[in-house]
TrEMBL record:
It comes from the Bacteria. Its main location: membrane. SMART domains: CorC_HlyC. PANTHER family: K(+)_H(+) ANTIPORTER NHAP2, NA(+)/H(+) ANTIPORTER 1. Residues 490-570 form the Transporter-associated domain. Pfam families: CorC_HlyC (PF03471), Na_H_Exchanger (PF00999). One of its GO terms (molecular function) is antiporter activity. The chain crosses the membrane at residues 6-26, 33-51, 57-76, 88-111, 117-139, 184-206, 243-263, 275-294, 300-327, 334-358, 364-384. This is Sodium/hydrogen exchanger. It is found in: Cell membrane. One of its GO terms (cellular component) is plasma membrane. The lineage of its organism: Bacteria, Pseudomonadati, Pseudomonadota, Alphaproteobacteria, Hyphomicrobiales. It is a multi-pass membrane protein. Keywords: Antiport, Cell membrane, Ion transport, Membrane, Transmembrane, Transmembrane helix, Transport.
Length: 597
């Protein structure tokens, strides 16, 4: 006689192992990994291997907890620089953009399928937010290195728009339940939104400081810190929700705030949360896949595909364009942000709510949401990398991999112990001498530890242990990085000409027919770019001056622009600038492996 508990544990653990194993296939063929998890749930479900799971309440509860953990980790891993760079455009997208997407999609559904306005708005709200797990995977793990401003905007938006979608969905369910009081309901809706978002932000802010202060002041066993942070994050979510606020927003804000506290346990916390977030994503996608019944999709397939097409091609682009144009985003950047509006587990999770509320359209909405998510992951998820290249948004790499591990030191040490693995082709492997301040404390070669002077010249594969202050780690990265394979001609991204950052702007403007202000002519071209772009200047940032586009090509360690790419934008009719001669002073040159490091 089989014990049901052991059978359930065996099935659950087998699915986890299988999900991890299939990730190897996903990376090899370039498939969106979260699509693989969802497909695995479908494959072992009722229409696949026959595993019967139809408890929508359990799926919703487990999915909600998993979403809290994902949002907290999203906030915890969002850098202050990223938030500062993209806060306003991203928050506009996550509020106004979500509402606009909901309304545009609802209008289309109402007209095409003759559905009442409130149910149409409900369907729009369910699929209105981008999925944080899907977007974070593609941007942080999927190898898509795009312009910093675009990447930051997408990261902050995907982490902060789920609370608005959750509120909209639940509020519209309440309006449907109180049909006939729409006028009073709208006023109530506005006040509830302000209250929930306000309490969510305050609860997350206080919870984040509580987590940070607790981590700094308590001396615990190393393994207890992640458990404590996990408990406090869930407490912030639950407490805020009980007080009538948005617990999901509180979880995200708590992650943002607590990450500003640097403690010796921070590296360990990041590793723990990375594994916990993967587990949350796998469990959530597997459960939602198990809950679906693909044999029921046939009757709703065409409306689902039409709705997905409207969302992807009309509603999302219109909302993104309206939200980002005031912030000076280019047409290519707006097009890319529009396309990266991937839908995922959150939309399916919210589609469970109408079922739990007992709506007649509940099951139909769940199936439509599932079809939309599958379409989004297949069509958008598979095409993001080639689209980024086609739009010229992929930033060419400057250095190859740097394999390093940060280790915790007791107390409040001002230095960090960094472990580098020497890679082939790096400056140190080619015999470049290490500065006195970067002398290794220990070298491990062939499983044998030795002093630096005993090791002699460092060789590929050596593990090098160095005590370093945080401000010099970037310099160490360059010493231990390998050159990367760069296309012989990178003019498609950085422009046809290469100028030095200390070139006088007045001379460049005269040579290329750029219209600049008289006072700007006293600056170098690097100073001009830094002033126009602000403190957060990144490689690949660009500005247009008439028909000339200036692109930041290289930065010094202190953030000064050292090299600038120049591109002549196409004109609709011939112009004298098309016949401009190449300057003698700043000749074009191709980047070499040496200059890339």
């Amino acid at each position: 006689m089989f014990d049901p508990l052991f059978v359930a544990i065996l099935i659950g653990s087998s699915l986890l192992v299988l999900a991890v194993a299939t990730s190897l296939i996903a990376f090899r063929i370039g498939a969106p990994l979260l699509l693989v998890f969802l497909a695995l749930g479908l494959a072992v479900g009722e229409d696949g291997l026959g595993l019967d799971f139809d408890n929508a309440g359990v799926a919703y509860s487990i999915g909600s907890v998993a979403l809290v953990l994902i949002l907290f980790d999203a906030g915890f891993n969002t850098r202050t620089e990223t938030l500062r760079r993209a806060a306003w455009p991203a928050l506009t997208l996550s509020t106004v953009g979500v509402v606009m997407t909901t309304c545009i999609l609802a209008a289309a559904v109402h007209l095409l399928f003759d559905l009442d306005w409130l149910p149409s708005l409900l369907l729009g709200a369910i699929v209105s937010s981008t999925d944080a797990a899907a977007v974070f995977f593609l941007l942080r793990i999927g190898g898509v290195r795009i312009r910093e401003r675009v990447r930051a905007t997408l990261e902050v938006e995907s982490g902060s728009n789920d609370p608005v979608a959750v509120f909209s969905t639940l509020a519209l369910l309440g309006l449907i339940a109180t049909e006939g009081e729409a006028g009073a309901g709208v006023l109530t809706l506005v006040s509830q939104f302000v209250l929930q978002m306000g309490l969510g932000a305050v609860g997350g802010y206080l919870g984040g400081h509580l987590i940070g202060q607790t981590m700094k002041r308590l001396q615990l066993e190393a393994g207890l810190y992640p458990v404590l942070v996990l408990g406090l994050a869930l407490m912030a979510f639950a407490t805020t929700s009980l007080l009538g606020g948005s617990g999901f927003l509180a979880a995200y804000v708590a992650g943002l705030v607590s990450a500003r506290y640097t403690t010796r346990a921070t590296p360990m916390l990041r590793r723990f949360q990375e594994g916990l977030t993967w587990l949350s994503q796998i469990v959530m996608f597997l459960l939602l896949g198990l809950l679906a019944t693909p044999s029921h999709f046939g009757a709703i397939l065409l409306p689902g595909l039409i709705t997905a097409a409207i969302l992807i091609l009309v509603a999302r682009p219109l909302a993104v364009t309206a939200c980002l144009l005031p912030f000076g985003f280019s047409a290519t950047e707006i097009a890319f942000v529009s396309w990266v509006g991937l839908r995922g587990a959150v939309s399916i999770l919210l589609a469970i709510a109408p079922i739990l509320a007992g709506l007649d359209v509940g099951q139909a909405f769940f199936n439509i949401a599932f079809i939309i998510v599958l379409t989004s992951l297949v069509v958008q998820g598979w095409s993001i990398r080639p689209l980024a290249r086609r739009l010229g948004l992929v930033v060419p790499p400057t250095i190859g991999p740097v394999e390093k591990v940060e280790l915790e030191l007791p107390g409040h040490a001002t230095h960090e112990l960094i472990v580098y693995r020497v890679v082939d082709g790096s400056p140190v492997s080619r015999g470049e001498r290490l500065p006195r301040w970067a002398r290794p404390s220990l070298v491990v070669r062939d499983n044998r530890s030795m002093r630096h002077h005993e090791a002699g010249r460092l060789a590929p594969g050596d593990l090098v242990y160095i005590f370093s202050s945080p401000r010099t780690i970037r310099l160490l990265d360059r010493l231990f990085a390998s050159p990367v394979a760069i296309d012989e001609d990178d003019t498609e991204y950085f422009g046809e000409f290469v100028l030095q950052g200390d070139a006088p702007l007045a001379a460049v403007a005269h040579e290329y027919g750029m219209g600049i202000e008289a006072e700007d002519g006293q600056q170098t071209i690097g100073q001009y770019l830094s002033r126009r772009l602000g403190a957060d200047t990144h490689r690949g940032d660009r500005i247009a001056v008439g028909r000339i586009e200036l692109i930041v090509r290289d930065l010094s360690d202190d953030g000064a622009v050292t090299r600038v790419g120049l591109s002549v934008l196409p004109a609709t009719r011939p112009s004298p600038i098309d016949r401009v001669r190449r300057p003698v002073r700043w000749r074009r040159k191709k980047p070499s492996a040496k200059s890339a490091v």
